[in-house]
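#onboarding

Welcome to the new folks! Below is a worked example of what a typical request in this channel looks like: someone posts a single protein sequence, and someone else replies with the predicted structure as tokens. Don't worry about understanding the tokens yet, we'll cover that in week two.

Example request:
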Amino acid sequence: MKPAFAAVFIALLGASPAIANPVALTHVRLIDGTGSPPTEDMTILIDGPIIRAVGQNLTLPPGTQVLDRTGDTVMPGLISDHSHVGQVGGTTTGPQFYTRDTITAELGQYRRYGVTTVTALGNNAPILFDTLRQEAHARQLPADLFGVDAGIGVPRGAPPVNVAPDQLIRPRTPTEAREAVGVMAAHGTDLVKIWVDDFDHSLPVKMKPAIITAVVEESHRRGLRVAAHIHDLADAQRVVAAGVNILAHGVRDKPVPPAFVDTLRTKGIWYIPTLELDEASTAWADEAPWTRTAFTRAGLSTALQQQITDPAWRQQHASGKQARFARDSLAINLQNLKTLHDAGVKIGFGTDSGAMPLRVPGIAEHRELALSVQAGLSPLETIKLATGNAADLMGLTDRGRIAPGLRADLLVVEGNPASDIRDADRIVETWENGTSVPGPLSHNGN
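Example response:
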């Protein structure tokens, strides 16, 4: 972005009503979400919930509140393509947590950690979820909310979660599968989600091919895209052949072969790695350095803090079959992300945060940034996944980038995350809905 934006600013003023109480963030380092290198000494003019102008040496309208952010970086708010809401309370999960208060609090935590748009990918109670989603779109909640009404699982199979009957549909026949899609479509679901994994052979059955086909065909007939929960390459190949649009998790049992990579690229299928899903299974027990930072601890409930500091709990979760499975899965996932990204496959951003207590809203997303860099992506490439790419996966053209006319969903951090992704954790404030909230450390007085 260049000083020519001053001309854009003037043109916008001529086409718009007078700006009342705009805010200017001045002298910032700008990462615009397109993958372009940072631009120094920029000004972002915020008019309510909208970015009015971006440029250098802007002439600001009278009454503008000027906030000098010298030394800070402004990037788009993070966008989650795969999270969950209303499933966790402290260290337990269950349908009793699917309440307005719980979900609003979770969205507040996402916002404090810089996540301004959340996609709840399944297990949602339609009546409450649809109401909250409309309120979020109307800027009445801490963060915007999209997602899947309920979801489609397998009788006696995936997902092995404790949810209410209206949060998950388990069709037994293709006819029931098509009816399930119809029910979700009637509620205005943003996507359709299917679970096809057997969770490391811990479940007796997987979703039948006929069910997958029925869901995909009916969804596409109704103009809906399908996201599939997978773990193994064979399942990923199976659902891709059936026509799914999004792989909701990374392939984690073996390296992806060239033919599969080419299929994803040529068909334009989106891939959400969810690296943090497996890291979270062992990192807390291992007492990984990031789990002990003030930034992390500020987002934990009292119950979770007590659990992860219990020596007996740590010993139980640091070893054994499940821990080995998680570590092995993460290693393959990191490798496959690098392979697919370098090949030009469409990569989204998500963590499965909120599905289980150890996948903590907001914290998980910052770990996903760090893990993506660990996989071999540059910090700028990683930020693009979490902003511009994540918006594109959801078809959201009004966010994920910083430019005039787009939503003022902004994350302000100290330092330069384009050089060191850890600086993305140094949150000053998050902007959305025309207002800012401080980062988690400021919020908690630490």
